[in-house]
Design goal:
With 368 residues, this protein is mostly helical. 72% of the residues lie in helices and 3% in strands. Strands 1-2 form a two-stranded antiparallel ribbon. The chain starts with a helix and ends in an 8-residue tail after the last strand.
């Protein structure tokens, strides 16, 4: 009977790792990227008959080929990192804020409203101050709505925040028609193009340096907040166990509301920078999907703001490189998206091998 039971044992067992050295985890991640590049190279040769080395060289050129491309890549990195910083406190608290896209849009909408309604009527320095306050409050209040219902009525925050995205999109669509310029165009166009009222100042000749510096300061502040502040400790405890948090005297409802206020406020800052310091307009595509991509950035970095710089760089580089491939080789945009998807699939898949290991069962014949 024992022999029959032994014979039925599966060939492979999946066992959770109790712990893995940091350098081993990074070796697994690096190997996953190498494997992804090999698969992408083979796929490129098979489907397009292009030289994969030239394809990868084009990806690098798309991000670093000129000063303008380099700063565009840094801008994309900074904006993605900003939204990732916003969702991280909520995720660490196990509050699944999927509404960053809408919170960014609402923050950007508040910025655009200030520029349109107050531009030229008050001094520019005061206008920018009003824009900052309004965008932060708009994003924070938008995030507080699902937080309030979660804290008091235990609603599903994933669905609530997701649905809030669509409400935000429709609000932006409505005001796009109200403020469209010229009338009938269906878009707002560049706001205050002649006067530059509400436009953030440039540092030297660099268009996006101010954005990068602001997000860098936010990254450092978020790292300190999560690791060394009392609030950071409390949200981590709530994330581990609400019952434990209550037992040690933490006000769980207060922590939920406070953390989501912070999350929405940083999303509002992202909207502010996208409208007031990047595109100088607002549309339903202003957030550009960053609210969802930021989830991957935060998760891959294990909710560590410093590591998020690396994961944001990787995704920004892939996006810029994929667009360059599609342009240079005359390929459909879908092909560059396929390459990006394969690389991300391997990177995400590497986390399985970091957290689990495969153990093979070797059957041995009984010696008589």
């Amino acid at each position: 009977m024992a022999d029959k039971t032994k014979a039925r044992e599966p060939l492979v067992h999946i066992v959770k790792r109790t712990g893995i050295a940091g350098y081993k985890a990074w070796i697994i991640r690096i190997l996953s990227v190498v494997a992804a590049l090999v698969v992408c190279a083979l796929l490129t040769m098979f489907l397009t008959h292009q030289n994969p080395i030239q394809v990868y060289a084009t990806m690098i050129k798309g991000s670093f080929g000129s000063s303008r491309r380099f700063w565009m890549m840094l801008q994309n990195l900074a904006m993605l990192l900003c939204v990732a910083l916003a969702v991280t406190p909520a995720f660490k608290m196990r509050f699944w804020n999927i509404g960053a896209e809408g919170q960014v849009l609402i923050g950007g909408l508040a910025t655009a409203a200030c520029m349109i309604l107050l531009g030229g009527k008050i001094p520019n320095a005061l206008l920018i101050l009003v824009m900052i306050i309004c965008s932060i409050l708009a994003g924070a209040i938008w995030a507080l709505i699902p937080a309030f219902f979660k804290a008091h009525f235990n609603t599903n925050e994933t669905l609530f925040t997701l649905m809030m995205n669509y409400v935000g999109i429709q609000l932006v669509s409505y005001f796009t028609i109200v403020w469209e310029n010229p009338k009938g165009s269906g878009q707002i166009g560049i706001i205050n193009q002649a006067t530059h009222a509400g436009w953030f100042p440039k540092i030297g000749n660099f268009d996006y340096l101010l954005n990068v510096l602001i997000v860098l300061a936010l990254t450092i502040a978020m790292f300190v907040y999560l690791k060394y502040s009392k609030h950071g400790y409390e949200l981590a405890v709530v994330g581990e166990s609400e019952n434990t948090a209550r037992y040690i005297g933490v006000n769980v409802k207060k922590v939920v509301l406070r953390t989501m206020f912070l999350s929405g406020a940083i999303c509002g800052i992202a909207g502010l920078l996208l409208v007031g310091s990047t595109s100088y307009t607002i549309s339903t595509k202003t957030a550009g999907g960053r609210g969802f991509t930021a989830i991957m950035v935060s998760w891959l970095a294990k909710f560590n703001p410093i590591y998020m710089i690396l994961t944001s760089f990787l995704l920004a580089f892939l996006e810029r490189g994929a667009n360059e491939i599609a342009t240079v080789f005359g390929l459909d945009q879908a092909f560059s998206d396929i390459l990006t998807g394969i690389i991300l699939f391997f990177i995400i898949g590497s986390e399985f091998f970091i957290n689990y290991q495969l153990k093979f069962h070797h059957s041995q014949k009984e010696v008589k």
